[in-house]
Sequence to fold (310 residues):
Amino acid sequence: MWRIGWLTSWCARRKRQEIATVFRGDGVKKTSKFSPENFNPSDGVTILAGRGTYPYLCATRMKEAGVDCSLIASEEADEAIFEIFPEKKRARYNAGQFGKLLRRLEFYGSRYALMAGQIAPKKLFHGLKFDLAALKLLATLRRRNAETIFGAMATEIERRGVQLLDARAFMDDDLASVGFMTKTQYNRQGLDEGISVAKAIAALDVGQGVVERKGTILAVEGFDGTDKMLRRCKEFNTNQKWFIKTSKPSQDFRFDVPVVGLWTLAALAAGGIQAMAVEAKSTILLDREKFLAEADRRCIGIYGYEFCSS
Fold:
């Protein structure tokens, strides 16, 4: 009897421990390690979506977690994401219509917002239809680039009582881990030197990636973007090329998360690049399982590194 009673008590304690790992003390499920401590799924999250599959995956995972979510999508956003939101919970805007975005946020009444997906850098300077709110915001900036513009937008959104979440929220399972994540592995000679250069370039706000071979830098990412840099590396007819992607020393993960996907693998293959190193716990591998399987199919090695400034 004593043993049965002890076993019953132990099972009960174990069950309570398991529940505690899933729920906070107030009984609310914590859906991501990147969500705030006081996060409540019923408070609502509005996704501010750019192009690509990232917003779609993020929205899908929010819904699976029981999050009350709504959508404000740029004109570059994929049509597929609209299919998972009812009409009253979705809207589209031009990237220059900041006032429309703010009004829609107010209409939804969400406590949180999350930026996901890309807006092409050239879109910040061409083809935008600036409204009065956008013009006022731009007038406050001495330096105008993606970081300062999105940073100013984030400040104004939060000034209106909407908290902007870390954009890695709900994407925990897609983050890069430490070490080789693929069966395909290559020699890492010179990789540390390449990572240091990538970090230095990122600190200067030039780009967030370089291509290197045994410590020699072959290409640096610029305003033209990652894919074009990778593809032009085809002219370097050599092996053991690594693409290194990094975060900035002062990365604002509310609107600027390093992301790679199947399109990155296609660009690596086109550039004759055999391996890629990404910063662990900071870089999203979109649809990670499928991404890594495709990397192995293409014989491309994917490695996650931890950076130590000392």
Remarks:
- Residues 44 and 109 are 8 Å apart (CA to CA).
- The domain at 41-164 is CATH 3.40.50.20 (Rossmann fold).
- Residues 1-28 have pLDDT under 50 and may be disordered.
